[in-house]
Fold:
Amino acid sequence: MSEVRFLQKARIAFRFGHYGDTFHGSQVQPDVPTVQGTLMHIFKKKLKWTNDRMPVSLASRTDSGVHVRMNGGFIDLDSDKWEAMGERGFIKAIGHQVPDNISIFDARKVSNDWSPRRALNRTYRYRMECMEKWREPELEFFTELCAIFEGNHDWSNYCRREPGRTTRRVIESCKPWLDSERIIGFEIVGEAFVWNQVRRIANAIYSVIAGNKEIDTLIFARDNPETEIDLGLAEPDWLILWSVSWENIPDLDVKELSVPEPDRSSKRWKEICRLQQKEILIRQFDIMQGEY
Structure:
């Protein structure tokens, strides 16, 4: 009787970013390019590292058009394979296969029950200065407006409602995203978010800045989830999943870089803004990959 050898597995956590406008979201879907689907194809078909049906799990799901500065995931590999190549070999092997619209930053062995979904917090940034009728408000006013969206609330009026799913979340902070003293947009931090939450918050804030809604309306919508109020959904183009943090995984310490101001003198200023969104990512990717 031939001896059967059972290979031990190593769970490898990795961090990455990607351009949102080149994928139909992050989560795998049939017949359309997604980030999860692309990584699965690389691990299963190109590198032949796994035969698992769903070998890649991601920390955060993003919609089509939403850029990602940093997300995280894992794959289970044979321990012998990981020990032979280590982080450097892992990054190098993926780097030869991954398309230009995905950047891999680092990798490390974690416990076999580690899940990227159990993050300490997630940080999103929304670039409001690229919205059509944006007029930069006073910083004090904008800070107070952002603070409306902090705390433990039922966010039914600030998300896409899904039957049977809780819409209660804790938002740790919501504050202005600044370049020196210029308001770029806002940064929002929480352990987890419900579907479309940040984009609906962005549109609600925008509606006040544009003079279409009063602050009291936003507060009423927050505090009365049983009364359905539609405050609209902002475009995905200006949203960035900025970072995800986990226990026992050190955050990447990346310096803040200046963000170009929209040039509204051009008829195609929105297209310029879209290019700038990628420039923000590219410069961040360069720094994070350089640290590796």
In short: The domain at 9-110 is CATH 3.30.70.580 (Alpha-Beta Plaits).
